[in-house]
Amino acid sequence: MCSGVSKSIAIAVACLAVLCGAFNGAFATVPELSSSRVVFQTNYGDIEFGFYPSVAPRTVEHIFKLVRLGCYNTNHFFRVDKGFVAQVADVAGGRTAPMNEVQKLEAEKTLVGEFSDVKHVRGILSMGRYSDPDSAQSSFSMLLGDAPHLDGEYAIFGKVTKGDETLRKLEQLPTRKEGIFVMV
């Protein structure tokens, strides 16, 4: 009887070890957020972001500078694709207010892609870009669902810390399809 109990315990321990390894792999790519926060105020509610400077330091620095300069003021979401992304327009073309020279200079900077093993899941902030992986400027997406096909292809720099109810409201907005995009 003792050997049967020992085998059962050994099997349970082995299963637990496999599960722990699987969970460790799944959670190993969740970086720590910095204490800094930015709040975007929308007509549908506020969205607060936290940032991953250990994952994408140049991207975080660039976004913070754009925020401090007021570049995202009067900007908009140009794309809301339910269950996928809410994408903030590039500040050089998405603002309704004109930019001063300092804002233009920062807005036109192109970032080298800072790709990581962090997963694209609901709430993640991920830089927009063209086909060139080093072409991100100021457009970014808030993930409205899991998008594993973006993993390692787009620079993740933070996540939504408050305002998921606002994201849910954005997902309900009427949209129109233009080519491959679902536009607001």
Automatic annotation (TrEMBL):
Residues 39-184 form the PPIase cyclophilin-type domain. CDD domains: cyclophilin (cd00317). SUPFAM superfamilies: Cyclophilin-like. It is an enzyme of class 5 (isomerase). It catalyses: [protein]-peptidylproline (omega=180) = [protein]-peptidylproline (omega=0). The keyword Translocase does not apply. Keywords: Isomerase, Rotamase, Signal. PPIases accelerate the folding of proteins. It catalyzes the cis-trans isomerization of proline imidic peptide bonds in oligopeptides. This is Peptidyl-prolyl cis-trans isomerase. It comes from Penstemon davidsonii.
